[in-house]
Each structure stands twice: as C-alpha cells, then as structure tokens.
C-alpha cells in the first residue's frame, strides 16, 4: 500500500535537489578565478587573421565574384585542403562568354546580365551556396520555367509528329468506334515513357558537355577525380534548364521557346 506524501517529504526533496546555477552565479564563479576569466577571454576573442577585420574584405565586388561579407563566418578555422580534394572552378568571364555563345548562338554572351550568367552555371555545392545557385531557375516554384518551357515544346512536337503519322489502332472486339476529333489527333504519341527517354540525364548531360558547360560549371564534387559518381550528369542537366529559365525571365517566353526548340530539342532529334 503506497504512502501519501507529507509536507516534510516535500521539504526534504526541495533541500536535496540542487538547482542549476544562474548566469549571475557563473559570472561570480569566473571572477573568483582570474585564470578562468583570461582563458575564456582568449577563446572568445581569438579569430583567424584572415577575418580579424571584415572591413578589409572587398565590399564592392559582385556576388558571383566574391562571397558576401555578411555570409563570411568570423573566426572560421582555416583547415588545410588535401591536394587530392582540391577542386578549381572557372573564374574567367571570357571563357563563360564563349560557352554561352555556343549554347545560345550569335551574341549569346549579351543575352543575359553578368549576375544571371554566373548564376546559371553555379550549383549549390559551390561555396556552400553563398554566392547564389541555379535551383530556382531550373526547378523551384514559379521560376521552374526552364524545364517547363522545354517540356512544353517537346509535348507540342510529339503531338504534331503523331498527328501526321497516326499509330494504327487494333479493332475493337465489340465493334465500337472511338471518338475522333481533329483537336485530339496526336495525343496517343504523347506518353510519359517517350518523354522520359528523350530527356534522360545521360542525353541532356551529353548535350551540355557538347556545348562546353562542363568547363565553366561551378560546383564542388564529392570526389574531384570521379565526376560521374559525384552526380555531374544531373548538375549539367540542371544548368541547361537554368539557362532557358534565365532567358525566359530576361528576354521573355517567346524568345525562350525559340531557344528551347533550336538549341535543345533539335540537337536531341526533335526536328521541326
């Protein structure tokens, strides 16, 4: 039979339980021991020489060229990078301009602003994403235009190609005739399987490499000597979609549709 707790039991419990020291108690404890105070001060104020004065960092540099000052970690340790893990990316604007001319055609280096040029070739693994990255241009929310535009143009091509060469249909065993209408002609050729085969990451990455995007891509592979195992195919595909997305934002949807048809669909075999 359990015993009912009395007032003396509560008093005994309160006296035996030790309370957590308050902030005032901790400060008094430190003041009573000067060596602890100097030790904590040394640890709290010691910073790496590179970040001792953030005002000395270049503040007028564009975001694509340097990490924003507000995103620099003060007192970050400078860990040495192993030679086998060192990975150098392109920082030459002229090299990027040559690739954009190859991707977009004549005057392709003038179609995008400087910020957009570097954004489309920057993956979030580069500099921990502090200089911006191309996820939104290629995949996210309203800015998922790059993939949407290419997907729409491919769908229209598949519908038109199937309408000119309709697939034979098997006779119905009950003698029924399917409903036919000019607007619905060609829908049989628009299938998920055909679209996934046309735009798999291997084909898109091969096209991006043909344009030279792999030479200007800014990313940090997990294994610098094994690009494929680090996912370069997906990153190249994303960069290609991001270029179309950036074009749609800065030059309009009609111009982006033409770029998608001529520079992506045509090389993949979608003939007009």
The largest pleated sheet is described as:
none
Supply the helix-strand structural class.
mainly alpha
Total helices: the number is 12
What integer value in Å does the Rg equal?
A: 31 Å
Mean pLDDT: 76
Principal-axis shape: elongated
What is the H/E string? HHHHHHHHHHHH
Strand content: under 5%
Number of strands: 0
Spans of 5+ residues with little confidence (pLDDT < 50)? 35-56, 140-144
Terminal Cα span: 90 Å
Your description of this structure?
There is one protein chain. With 272 residues, this protein is mainly α. Helices cover 47% and strands 0% of the residues. The protein has twelve helices and no strands. It has helices at 7-16, 23-31, 34-45, 93-104, 114-120, 135-138, 145-164, 192-198, 201-211, 213-216, 232-251, 253-265.
Entry summary:
It is built from 12 helices and no strands. With 272 residues, the protein is mainly alpha-helical.
List the helices and strands and how they pair.
Elements lengths: L6 H10 L6 H9 L2 H12 L47 H12 L9 H7 L14 H4 L6 H20 L27 H7 L2 H11 L1 H4 L15 H20 L1 H13 L7
Helix pairs in contact: 7-11, 7-12, 9-11, 11-12
What key phrases describe this protein's structure?
mainly alpha; single chain; 12 helices; about 270 residues; elongated; about 0% strand
């Amino acid at each position: 039979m359990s015993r009912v707790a009395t007032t003396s039991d509560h008093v005994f419990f309160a006296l035996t339980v030790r309370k957590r020291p308050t902030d005032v108690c901790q400060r008094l404890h430190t003041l009573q021991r000067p060596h602890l105070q100097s030790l904590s001060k040394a640890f709290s104020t010691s910073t790496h020489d590179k970040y001792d004065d953030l005002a000395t960092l270049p503040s007028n540099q564009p975001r694509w060229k340097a990490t924003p000052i507000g995103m620099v970690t003060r007192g970050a340790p400078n860990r040495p990078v192993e030679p086998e893990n060192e990975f150098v990316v392109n920082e030459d604007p002229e090299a990027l301009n040559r690739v954009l001319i190859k991707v977009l055609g004549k005057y392709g280096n003038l179609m995008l602003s400087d910020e957009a040029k570097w954004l489309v070739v920057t993956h979030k693994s580069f500099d921990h994403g502090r200089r911006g990255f191309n996820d939104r241009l290629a995949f996210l929310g309203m800015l998922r235009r790059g993939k949407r535009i290419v997907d729409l143009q491919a769908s229209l091509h598949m519908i038109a190609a199937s309408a000119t060469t309709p697939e034979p249909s098997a006779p119905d065993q009950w003698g029924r005739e399917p409903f036919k209408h000019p607007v619905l002609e060609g829908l049989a050729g628009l299938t998920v399987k055909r679209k996934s085969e046309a735009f798999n990451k291997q084909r898109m990455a091969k096209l991006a490499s043909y344009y030279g995007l792999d030479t200007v891509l800014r990313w940090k592979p997990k294994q610098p000597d094994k690009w494929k195992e680090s996912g370069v195919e997906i990153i190249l595909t994303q960069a290609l979609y991001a270029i179309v997305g950036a074009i749609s934002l800065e030059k309009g949807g009609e111009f982006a549709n033409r770029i998608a048809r001529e520079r992506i669909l045509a090389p993949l075999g979608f003939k007009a």
